[in-house]
């Protein structure tokens, strides 16, 4: 290994200490004070935004994120990851800025929504100095990784801030338009955050930085944030414990979960995504079961391998599309925001060719069955809405005063206080109704989905399907 100079070692140590994976208040304060002095920025012009937003957005696949190799990455592999990340993030940030600017001016003027707009401008300003160059040295890679840490922290509370902004601006934009915009914007945010976090994880598990830090990262099966040996049953048990403890604390009882099917099955996916989805689905199942007085009936969870679509028999004359990773499911088409301008969505985004999934992409289907009485017909039609868009004036006042708007007399509202994905605070999403629509966004992002079948008066079956990476073949490591 080439000699590493002292400043490089200091920078590498600082990044590790301030990495957003820590999630503590102390690390956040350290990050803000240190990064505000260190990051080099460039003024973002309207021309920069227009140019970058006109570039094609490619649907992101899990295979894209593992193509640089299995950790610990060599120096050439790490530099390849950094340059791949740099090649796709600026245009994605520009699309988000343009999307926010397409909202009615009085809505964007809201201080909370304006803050999100400023956050995206800031992140793009930290990437522009790198946009016209290639990362060729470890010193540059360290500095670029600082930018990725800054990006992840800057956007850690985007969801709750946007929600508060749209609540305050409710007189100037319809609930239907808010739902469409958020569904698109938050899906795009999933990809942006995942791309940055993947490089951060690969950075810490790379050969040169392990040597600098004199320690090894022991995560067998992981390639960055992707677990190639993800065991759904293990995630289910973890989520069951988290939700069950809160349920028991407030009710004095907790339903029990039975796992059947193939509990030893594994596939490749992002564990934090599956954990968030399952937590939301189990919260709903536990709540319904307890409130229906059916806690003696088990919540039955079945794990089954997702069939390989290409090996299923074709139905003659069927027009069904092959499953794939679509720009629409990843929030890349800017349809929702373009509706306010009267202009068609970005042709570059909508015309980008869709890359199908690989021939063999093993995945999983998870069915969650409860005896909680089902979902009433009037509520079933709205389960994918962001609930805060239907708040009455009293609920709006409670939310703006910092209180959860839909307190339950039996204390079950505590289930809403479980931390949201992507760094959201424990209480920031409580009562806002983000659970199911955001869970579906995570599921659909890589070609999966969530289907709900309710038997009113009996119970609910929820089918979660997720596509994996497929065969991970990254070849031999470079010297």
UniProtKB/TrEMBL annotation:
One of its GO terms (molecular function) is ATP binding. Residues 269-470 form the Histidine kinase/HSP90-like ATPase domain. SUPFAM superfamilies: alpha-ketoacid dehydrogenase kinase, N-terminal domain (SSF69012), ATPase domain of HSP90 chaperone/DNA topoisomerase II/histidine kinase (SSF55874). The keyword Mitochondrion applies. It holds the Pfam family BCDHK_Adom3. Its main location: mitochondrion. This is Protein-serine/threonine kinase. It comes from Sporormia fimetaria CBS 119925. The lineage of its organism: Eukaryota, Fungi, Dikarya, Ascomycota, Pezizomycotina.
């Amino acid at each position: 290994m080439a000699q590493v100079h002292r400043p490089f070692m200091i920078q590498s140590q600082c990044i590790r200490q301030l990495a957003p994976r820590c999630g503590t208040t102390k690390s956040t304060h350290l990050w803000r004070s240190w990064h505000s002095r260190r990051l080099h920025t460039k003024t973002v012009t309207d021309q920069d935004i227009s140019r970058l937003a006109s570039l094609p957005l490619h649907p992101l696949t899990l295979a894209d994120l593992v193509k640089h190799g299995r950790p610990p990455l060599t120096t050439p592999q790490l530099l390849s990851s950094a340059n791949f990340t740099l090649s796709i993030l600026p245009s994605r940030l520009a699309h988000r800025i343009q999307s926010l600017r397409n909202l009615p001016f009085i809505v964007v003027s809201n201080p909370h929504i304006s803050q999100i707009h400023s956050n995206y401008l800031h992140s793009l300003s930290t990437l522009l100095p790198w946009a016209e160059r290639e990362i060729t040295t470890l010193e540059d890679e360290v500095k670029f990784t600082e930018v990725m840490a800054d990006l992840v922290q800057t956007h850690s509370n985007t969801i709750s801030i946007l929600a508060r902004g749209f609540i305050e601006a409710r007189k100037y934009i319809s609930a239907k338009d808010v739902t469409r915009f958020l569904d698109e914007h938050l899906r795009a945010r999933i990809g942006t955050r995942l791309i940055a976090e993947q490089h951060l994880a690969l950075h810490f598990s790379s050969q040169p930085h392990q040597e600098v830090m004199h320690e090894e990262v022991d995560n067998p099966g992981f390639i960055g944030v992707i677990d190639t040996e993800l065991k759904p049953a293990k995630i289910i048990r973890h989520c069951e414990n988290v939700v069950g403890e809160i349920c028991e604390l407030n009710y004095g009882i907790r339903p029990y979960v039975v796992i059947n099917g193939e509990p030893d099955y594994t596939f490749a996916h992002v564990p934090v995504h599956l954990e968030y989805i399952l937590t939301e689905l189990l919260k709903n199942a536990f709540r319904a079961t307890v409130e229906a007085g059916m806690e003696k009936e088990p919540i039955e969870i079945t794990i089954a391998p997702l069939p390989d679509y290409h090996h299923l028999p074709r139905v003659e004359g069927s027009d069904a599309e092959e499953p794939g990773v679509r720009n629409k499911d990843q929030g890349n088409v800017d349809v929702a925001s373009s509706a306010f301008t009267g202009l068609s969505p970005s042709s570059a985004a909508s015309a980008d060719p869709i890359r199908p999934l690989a021939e063999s992409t093993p995945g999983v289907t998870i069915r969650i069955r409860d005896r909680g009485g089902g979902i009433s017909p009037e509520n079933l039609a709205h389960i994918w809405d962001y609930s805060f868009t239907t708040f009455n004036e009293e609920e709006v006042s409670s939310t703006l005063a910092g209180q959860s708007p839909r307190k339950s007399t039996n204390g079950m509202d505590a289930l809403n206080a479980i931390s949201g994905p992507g760094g959201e605070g424990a209480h920031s999403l409580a009562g806002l109704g983000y659970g199911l629509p955001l869970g579906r966004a995570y599921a659909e992002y890589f070609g999966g989905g969530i289907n709900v079948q309710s038997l009113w008066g009996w119970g609910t079956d929820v089918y979660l399907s997720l596509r994996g990476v497929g065969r991970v073949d990254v070849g031999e490591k470079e010297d």
